[in-house]
Amino acid sequence: MLELETERTELLEKIEDLLERKQYAQLRDLLLPLEAQDIAVLCGELDDRVPLVFRLLPKEQAAEVFVELDSDEQELLIRSFSNTELKEVLDELYLDDTVDIVEEMPAGVVKRILQHSDPETRKSINEILKYPEDSAGSIMTTEFVDLKETMTVEDALKRIRRTGPDKETINICYVIDDRRHLLGYLSIRTLLLSEEDDIIGEIMDTNVISANTLDDQEDVAQTLNKYDFLALPVVDTENRLVGIVTVDDAMDVLQEEATEDIEKMAAILPGDKPYLKTGVIETWKARTPWLMLLMLSATFTGMILTHFENSLAAVPVLTSYIPMLSGTGGNSGTQASTAVIRALSLGEVRFGDLLRVVWKECRVALVCGLCLAIANFAKMMAVDRWLLGNPSVTPAVAAVVCSTLVGTVACAKLVGASLPILAEKIGFDPAVMASPFISTIVDALSLLIYFRFAIWILGI
Amino acid sequence: MLELETERTELLEKIEDLLERKQYAQLRDLLLPLEAQDIAVLCGELDDRVPLVFRLLPKEQAAEVFVELDSDEQELLIRSFSNTELKEVLDELYLDDTVDIVEEMPAGVVKRILQHSDPETRKSINEILKYPEDSAGSIMTTEFVDLKETMTVEDALKRIRRTGPDKETINICYVIDDRRHLLGYLSIRTLLLSEEDDIIGEIMDTNVISANTLDDQEDVAQTLNKYDFLALPVVDTENRLVGIVTVDDAMDVLQEEATEDIEKMAAILPGDKPYLKTGVIETWKARTPWLMLLMLSATFTGMILTHFENSLAAVPVLTSYIPMLSGTGGNSGTQASTAVIRALSLGEVRFGDLLRVVWKECRVALVCGLCLAIANFAKMMAVDRWLLGNPSVTPAVAAVVCSTLVGTVACAKLVGASLPILAEKIGFDPAVMASPFISTIVDALSLLIYFRFAIWILGI
User: Of the candidates B189, B99, B168, which has an alpha carbon nearest to the alpha carbon of residue A228?
Assistant: First the structure.
């Protein structure tokens, strides 16, 4: 595990040195014991020397490294491959990895890849490419072990020994009938622990949980995670087994979806590249739309302030508490919306829970608001009035600010908690209803509450 | 898969009806084909009838359901168990699940569990309990398949058939010497695809990636995910194999850590219970500390506003743009900090990348800031001055607001991107340096910039 940066740097220096001195045999020996993922990271720093290093690796390891490279490095390599080399690499790849690569390549490269895949693979690639992005079909692999009900354990093990090397996993085997309907499944453990003449149909588990090709990839990954499966079968509308999704791909999906949620909550349009690989213009494109929208929607808060300009002129000290009020309102709303959005995405909260959520947030808001109001009253009297010697901070002004705090926190928690649930109900993405959006609404609400209390208590 | 709420409600009604009519045989038949995770969810609604339902299940399924229950339901069940029943359930559990349960139970219950475990298990539980929370040791299981170098494939398969039923996984087997040093590993696939008289020492993979018992559980999960492993061996300081972490537990860790990061970014102290299971007081305790701290730190923005009270009195319209400026600053900072925090937690960015990150954010900030400033200038002239007919919105005022926008976005992006990296370097949690914290700093900075430009351009 190349944990430490120093270790990686040292290794990179060694590789560059060996490349310069053309000590290829030594370089090969250095790379052989490394994991594909680590070699791929190192390749990221070698630029146009990647094809050279790549050719030193044995076929199987080369293919593993290839899968882990960034798509632009993959493209560079494919362009440098002879037709024979391309075919060799393609033969070693698992189908779902080939599909991932094909999806990222420009048309010319895709054509070359398809030309050099065997007809069987080409057909499967084309089929998987037809499934919508983010569907179970688009992330599945068609390389699984299928068995017949009537086989004995001995037959099954023979079949696994024969076909196993090309399968993505042999840990779970699926039992299908002649028309490929999914009948059951069994783990390799069950097979190994059974007698040789046991019949598959009798020892298989027939309570199969499966996904449909069009199911959302996130739901598939959550299901795999919930039931602790190593793979989930994917069936078409007629319950015919067409592929499986393996746990490693499900884990990647969960990580990606978490990143996407986090980005949306921060008002960033989600992208699919790592931070440092995303260019300035791409980053700008991902960030500006929401910034622009939120900036323009602040027109409302501006209008409210303009409307109450005379009140502020009468008691100017009120102005200095506006950032604190809007900050606290924003933070309270963010807390509630974030908690609810995450709970929605983990399946802990559904639309039917709306009233329970609102009732809970009401009570939390009351306790939070009172605490903050008391602390703030004390602070305004002790620090602002006494320590900083500002005589315009009167108890009446403090009462206005603190009553507003209670009201703002209550509004913020209610809006923050209910908007994401309502958004999901009408088919919007709840993550978009997060922090920045909620803050903008709460900002306006808190100002209205502020001036209402100022008029009541101070009579301005 | 009990996807739909309606399906779950229907099933629950059927169960309650059967319970009422004491149709236990029928109830058992209804539950048998369900997955343990789904039965556990249903149990959550059955309250004190859980022990009754639980006793209907066959031993193995009962144990599977038991693991999936909430800890208070587990406690209720354990208290209702006879000693024999407790022993039966414990015998069926995997060691890491038992440890998880023991960690959540009050002392009296723990004592009873330990009394009814066999001596071997008791010793293992006590050892795992010694590892710090969130370490690899605390989430590992000691039930793995170990093989000797000198065995043949036939010996190994025999050993797996004999000891397999009690192991958490047989998909990956570990090769150790007489003193339990980890020498290599092989997958069940390698075993099955080899000849019966092949020697384990010759076919095993000796490039083992392992974790140390004290490694952070998040690092372990990331490593498993990175290399697409089904399990990762855990060794002590002398490279002796003490346990393994399996992919299902790693997936849970990644989900939990993502939730924790999201909570911290929203200024919530992370908890370990689902949203609806967390009480009002607990939620209040998790949310108030940061709210309070951020509220009090807004004193600085208040002081800045008080200091420039006369400037605001001279050009009152300036006040109405404060919320927009602080909102945009906060949002810009949030975008940068969130992107960097997620990249840090996925291992895409390290401290050494600080300058690259800052350079990237500088350029993004410039383009973003200019875009926003131009749009805002147009909006202030067209909407605020012309449409809303506010004559005090002069081009000079718009120039002040728009210059401040550029400066604020630049500050926000720089502070937002660099603080998390610096925090990680000095051993702080970068996620805490997120949205609310950054906003508070940026609020103060943006006001200082605002008044600086107001003094320069408007000469007040």
Answer: B168
- B439/A contact by beta carbon, under 8 A: yes
Residue B322, chain A, CB below 8 Å: the answer is yes
Residue found by looking up tokens 């929401």 in the block: A290
Residues A176, A182, A184, A189, CA torsion sign: positive
Closest CA to B336 of B216, B433, B243, B460: B433
Question: Which of B:335-394 have CB within 8 Å of A?
Answer: 335, 337-340, 342-343, 346, 348-353, 356-357, 360, 363-364, 367-368, 371-372, 375-376, 379, 383-384, 388, 390
- Which residues are B90's β-sheet partners? none
Q: In angstroms, rounded to a whole number, what is the distance separating the alpha carbons of residues B386 and B381?
A: 6
Rounded distance between C-alpha atoms, residue A122 and residue A100, angstroms: 14
Interior CA angle at A71 toward B252 and A44, to 5°?
Answer: 85
Give which of A68, A56, A63 is closest to A29, Cα–Cα.
Answer: A56
A235 by DSSP, 3-state: which? strand
The per-residue b/e assignment along B335-369, b for 16 or more CB within 10 angstroms, e otherwise, is bbbbbbbbbbbbebbbeebbeebeebbeebbbbbb
pLDDT averaged over consecutive 10-residue blocks of chain A (460 residues)? 65 89 89 88 83 87 88 86 85 84 83 83 82 89 91 94 86 93 94 92 93 92 91 92 92 89 81 81 86 84 87 87 89 88 85 90 93 94 89 92 95 91 85 75 91 90
Q: Mapping DSSP to helix (H, G, I), strand (E, B) and coil, where does residue B177 land?
A: coil
Residues of chain B with pLDDT under 50: 1-2
> Hey, is B145 helix, strand or coil?
strand
How far is the CA of B259 from the CAs of A322, A338, B337, in angstroms? Answer: 32, 10, 17
Q: Phi/psi class of residue B49: alpha, beta or left (left: φ > 0; alpha: ψ in -120 to 50)? A: alpha
- CA distances, A118 to each of A45, A55, A79, A93, A139 (Å): 33, 22, 19, 12, 21
Identity at A415, one-letter amino acid code: V
Strands A231-235 and A211-212: parallel
Q: What is the pTM of this model?
A: 0.80
Chain A hits for B375, Cβ within 8 Å: 292, 295-296
ipTM score of complex? 0.79
- What gap in Å lies between CA B181 and CA A102, rounded to an integer? 43
